[in-house]
Design brief:
single chain; mainly alpha; 75% helix
């Protein structure tokens, strides 16, 4: 029975990587129908938030929290909104697969920040992981067959920075009693509000104009937001956060494969080598250690 639980949990996390890996491709396909970034993000987060909070209420999951937890939750929702905003801004300048891989340098950033804060011991393996990640990033960015726009790279790196804040805040002791689905619900709801404001300020329509666009919105909301988060939470319960985090590091690889199949992204040898180095670095930084565990990613 224990082996069955481990298999189911592993399959859940693999499902998560597939769901998140589809984000760039589905987004580019939606953009081709004429939908704006602001409208896409508002619809994606609105529909996903409605589904998540409906699930929370149906399952009667407690969602009240104290003031200290609420302060950390505020930092989480703001940083998550930053993740979505900067990632989609990078899509305007570079390919989705490239943007995703660059954003996945965030584990190296987390290690560096934690070392500077004294929360993480200086270990050779962690330093090597940072170096490997940077080498991989250089190989990806300077590939001769890929059109690189520095602004897109900057936005993708900003996304990695937001991921760093998001991950560190998730590990706060103040949130240990808060259900991860509640955290996800707060993140989705806040992101919907932020993009409602962005739509209003930019004078973009709040909702899609045709069924074709609406179809992509539901795909992004149901698969890339709601399902991805729910599968991750279920998987973590069955195999633990460390194992789940290790498996989830293959998300950039999934993004590259889906980008190549669905939207025709160019994949060069240099990009593949750089991607493998980045994934290797992420795997190395996520290896479980004794008496420690990784935070959940909602």
């Amino acid at each position: 029975m224990k082996k069955n639980f481990k298999l189911i949990g592993t399959l859940c996390i693999i499902g998560t990587t597939l769901c998140y890996g589809l984000v760039p491709s589905f987004s580019f396909l939606a953009f081709e129908t004429g939908v704006s970034t602001e409208t896409l993000l508002f619809n994606k987060f609105l529909y996903a938030a409605v589904l998540m909070w409906a699930y929370i209420f149906i399952k009667k999951i407690p969602f009240k929290m104290d003031k200290r937890a609420a302060r950390h939750m505020l930092a989480i929702v703001i940083s998550y909104a930053g993740i979505a905003t900067t990632l989609y801004l990078s899509f305007d300048y570079i390919s989705g697969s490239l943007a995703t891989i660059i954003s996945f340098t965030f584990p190296a950033m987390v290690i560096a920040v934690e070392m500077l804060r004294g929360k993480e011991k200086v270990r050779a393996a962690k330093i090597i992981a940072v170096i490997i990640s940077l080498i991989g990033l250089c190989l990806i960015v300077w590939s001769p067959d890929i059109e690189i726009k520095i602004l897109g790279v900057i936005f993708a790196l900003a996304c990695a920075g937001c991921y760093t804040v998001y991950t560190i805040e998730l590990s706060s002791d103040a949130l240990k009693d808060v259900n991860s689905l509640v955290t996800a619900g707060c993140v989705l709801a806040f992101s919907a509000v932020v993009n409602f404001v962005r739509c209003t300020v930019s004078a973009n329509p709040l909702f899609t104009e045709n069924l074709h666009q609406l179809g992509y919105m539901f795909l992004l909301a149901v698969i890339c937001a709601f399902s991805a988060i729910l599968l991750f939470c279920l998987g973590v319960k069955l195999i633990g956060p460390s194992n789940a985090a290790i498996i989830n590091t293959f998300e950039p690889v999934c993004a590259c494969v889906f980008g190549f199949i669905l939207v025709g992204d160019v994949i060069t040898v240099s990009m593949m080598v750089g991607g493998l180095l980045v994934v290797s670095a992420v795997l190395l930084t996520n290896l479980p250690e004794k008496h420690s565990s990784l935070p959940e990613k909602p």
